[in-house]
Every structure is written in C-alpha cells, then in structure tokens.
Design goal:
Keywords: Metal-binding, Signal. This is Molybdate ABC transporter substrate-binding protein. Pfam families: SBP_bac_11. The two termini are about 40 Å apart. The protein has twelve helices and ten strands. It has a five-stranded mixed sheet with strand order 2-1-3-10-4. A five-stranded mixed sheet has the order 7-6-8-5-9. The protein is globular, with a radius of gyration of 22 Å. It has about 270 residues and is of the alpha/beta class. Strand 1, helix 3 and strand 2 form a beta-alpha-beta unit. Helix 1 packs antiparallel against helix 2, helix 3 packs antiparallel against helix 12 and helix 7 runs antiparallel to helix 8. Helices cover about 45% and strands about 20% of the residues.
C-alpha cells in the first residue's frame, strides 16, 4: 500500500523539493498489522491487545466476526497477520493451503443456554423446555459460525436422547447471529436478541453467556449438561513471514494472556 502511494506520487509530481518531500513521506506510510478473530473473542481480545500494547507491542487493526466467514475472506485474499478462530478447522485449513503458518489450540469453550425467567429453565427438563412450540429459540448460523455448528451438533445429541428433536430444533431455530462480521460499535447480537424481545432462549458459548448476564442480570443461564454439551477448541495461526503476527501469537499463548482468557470464561 505504501509502495503504491509512493509510485503514484512519483508519477504525478513535477520534480522538485516539494515533490521529493511528499514522496519521502509516502514512503514512510505504514499499515497496522491485521488481527481477524471470532466474535466470541472480542471482549477478551480487547483486554489482551491492551496488555500487548502496554508491554511494548505494536497496535493491531482488529476485526471480529464469524470464523467461517473470516476464513473465506482470507482465502479470497484478505490481508491478515494473525487469525484466531472459534474452531481449529479453519486455521488448519488455511495452514494446509499455505496461507497461514502452524495452527495452535489456545482456548476452549462450551455451550450454555441463556433464557428469560419465564422459561423456567432447568437441567433435568432442558430438552422438553427448548422444544416447546411457543418458545422462541435463538442460535448462531451454522456454516459461517462455529458456534452455530456446535449448536447443531447439540441438536443431534438431543435427537439421540429423544428421537425427533433434531427436526424440531432445526425447524424452529432463529439464526440471529453469525452471518456477518461484528460492528465494534454495535450491541452484541446475543444481548440485542433479549433487549429487543426477539428470543426466549439463546444457545451460545458459555463465555458469551457470562457477558449477556452481566448486561442483563434478570436473565437465567444454564450450562448444558456434559452428556449433551459440545466442547469447543479455538485455533490460532499467524501468516507466514509476519513477525508481528508471530509475536502476538506467542503473547496469546503466554501466561498473562491465558489468565485474561480464563477471566472471560475460557478454559
């Protein structure tokens, strides 16, 4: 980008001191390294990046969104120095294509259900409650967001306990997140779903559930029982040859950053 600006100025300028000064300034233009990360990582990575800068690290341009969508953008040529995905499937695929370096597991998560008090959510009757015809069940979007993929795996586990539930859940699920990148200035879709009265229950990462309950304390939160839950792993990989990406990756794997992740509910 800096090189293009430099070439453009050289082509457009009339030789002289002013032109030389403008060209020199253009040559010094730098572009911040790019971090692309799963939307569920936004709160934790905001604090991780602050700690990274406090330790002398370089400012990153961060963009958060559904991991599957971000992977497709990287495959399409989008610039990235570090990619943190809610599933190692995406970082591993990009590594195989030579678009990223080695994929590493750096965090783990699980599924929870957040609901309004009127739902009366309880672990011993979770499936029957979620299957109520009148209950508006929100989810993320499978295919573009691993949280949606894990939710549909939960639906299949539920079907093994009670045949027919997969079809019920698949038909009624309201895909209210995971189809688009997150606007850093917008309300999280998991919070907006309840604030705008669009859902009675929402299946999400337990880390997101903690954030939603902090914003809306009246809501109930239930970790899906282990027999039905779908634990998830997060993958991270830097672009080959990106010194800044590799440095931030090492920081994410370090004890200070791992402590921050645990603070936000990651395992």
């Amino acid at each position: 980008m800096a090189a293009n600006c430099f070439a453009t100025l050289l082509a457009a300028c009339v030789p002289g001191a002013a032109c030389a000064q403008d060209a020199a300034q253009a040559a010094q233009v730098t572009v911040a390294p790019v971090l692309l990360a799963a939307g569920s990582l936004r709160p934790a990575f905001g604090e991780i990046l602050a700690a990274w800068r406090a330790a002398g690290g370089k400012e990153f341009a961060a963009q958060y969104g559904p991991s599957g969508k971000l992977r497709k953008e990287i495959e399409g040529g989008r610039a990235v120095d570090l990619f943190a995905s809610a599933s190692p499937e995406h970082t591993e695929a990009l590594a195989r294509q030579g678009l990223l370096g080695e994929s590493r597991i750096f965090a783990r998560n699980a599924l929870c259900v957040v609901s309004t008090p009127e739902v009366g959510l309880r672990a011993d009757r979770l499936l029957d409650t979620l299957a109520r015809p009148s209950l508006r069940l929100a989810t993320s979007t499978p295919g573009s967001d691993p949280m949606g993929d894990y939710t549909w795996q939960f639906f299949r586990k539920a079907d093994a306990h009670k045949p027919g539930l997969y079809a019920v859940f698949d038909a009624k699920a309201l895909k209210l997140s995971g189809a688009a990148n997150l606007d850093p200035n917008s309300t999280l879709p998991y919070i907006a779903a309840f604030a705008d009265d669009k859902a009675d229950a929402y299946i999400m990462y337990c880390t997101n559930a903690v954030i939603v309950r902090e914003a809306l304390p009246r809501l109930d939160m239930l970790r899906i029982p282990d027999s039905l839950n779908v634990p998830s792993s997060y993958g991270i990989a830097a672009r080959k040859g990106s010194a800044e990406g590799e440095s931030l990756l090492r920081f994410v794997l370090s004890p200070p950053a791992q402590d921050i992740l645990r603070k936000y509910g990651f395992q």
